[in-house]
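Inputs:
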Amino acid sequence: MQILIIQALLIAFFFYASVRVFLRYRANEISAGVTMSWILFWIIAAFLTAKPDITYFFARIVGIGRGADLVMYVALALIFYMLFRISVSTQKINKDITKLTRKIALGDYKEKFESEQDLSKENRINPR
Amino acid sequence: MIVVVVPAYNEEKNIGRVVRGLFENGYKDVVVVDDGSADKTYGTALEAGAKVLRHAVNRGQGAALQTGNDFAVQKGARIVVHFDADGQFNPADIGDALKLMRENEYDVILGSRFLDNRSKMPWFKKKIILPVARVINHVLTGVKLTDAHNGFRVLSRNALEKIDITQDGMAHNSEIVYKIKKYNLKCIEHPVEDQYFKFGQGVGGGLKTIFNLLFSVFH
C-alpha cells in the first residue's frame, strides 16, 4: 500500500492532536468523556485518511461522486455547527461576566460609601 | 429624584468637566460608571463629586448604562438621564427634555442631533455613518428616528423598570429603541447639541459602530 505525503502529514497531525487531548486530560483540564470523544474522532479521521476507499463507499450511498467530497461536506457542516455552539457558550459566559461585574460594582459602592450610613442607622435603631 | 448616569471609559481628561457641568446645572445626583478604565477616570470623577461605580473589567457602554440604571432604581430614582462622558453634550439640554417629559408624560426622550443645527458634525459622520446607522436601526427596530447612536436619553421610572439593557456593547442603542416599541412606551425625540471638539470616534470608529449594529442581529 502506497501512502501519499498528504496522508502521512494528516495522520501525523491527527496523532499530535490526540497527544494534545491526552495532555489536557492529564492536566485535569478536560473530562474523561471529552477526552475519549476527541481521541475517537482523531482515530476515525486517521483511519479514513489511511483508507479513503471507505469514504467512497459511503459517498456512493448518499449520492456523492467522491469520498473526499463527502468528508468535506460533513466536516463543514460539523464545523459550522460547532462554531454556533461556541458562539452561544461565549455569549453566555460574557453575559455572566457582565452580571458579576455589575454585582461587584454595586456591592463595592455599598461597602465603601454606605457602610458608615448603615452603621449609624443600626445604631439609631438599637441605641446602646 | 433625577439621576444622571454617565458611562465612562478612559475619560480622565473630560469626566471632571462633565460632572461639574451637571452640578452647575442643578443635577446633584450624578452617577459615573467607570467601565474598567485604565486611566484615572475613577479618581477624577470622585474628586469632582460624583457617585462613582467601578466595573472591575471593561464590559462596554451598554453594560455600564445598565449598572447605572440598576443603581438609580435601587436609590429610588424617578427619572434617569443618560449623558455621555466625552464632554460633547450640553447639560443645559437636560432641563428642556425633563420639562417635555413632565408636561406630556413621556416614558422616554431620545436626544437627536438632527432636529436643530447646533451640532457641528464631521462630514463623514453626518453624511455617511449616521444615515447608514439610521437605516439599519430602522430595519432592526421598526422605529424611524432622525438620529442613531445618540447617548442622550431621559427615561421615566416606568421605562427603567421595563428596559433591561442586555447588549453590553454599542448595540444597546438599537436594543433600547427596540424595547421602547416592544413595551409600547411613549417616546419622542428632542434636539440636543453635540459639540465636536475632536473628530469623535473617527472614520474607523464609525464603521465599527455600523459593524456592531449589523453584528447585533446575530446576538
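Chain B has a mean pLDDT of 88. Flag for discussion at group meeting.
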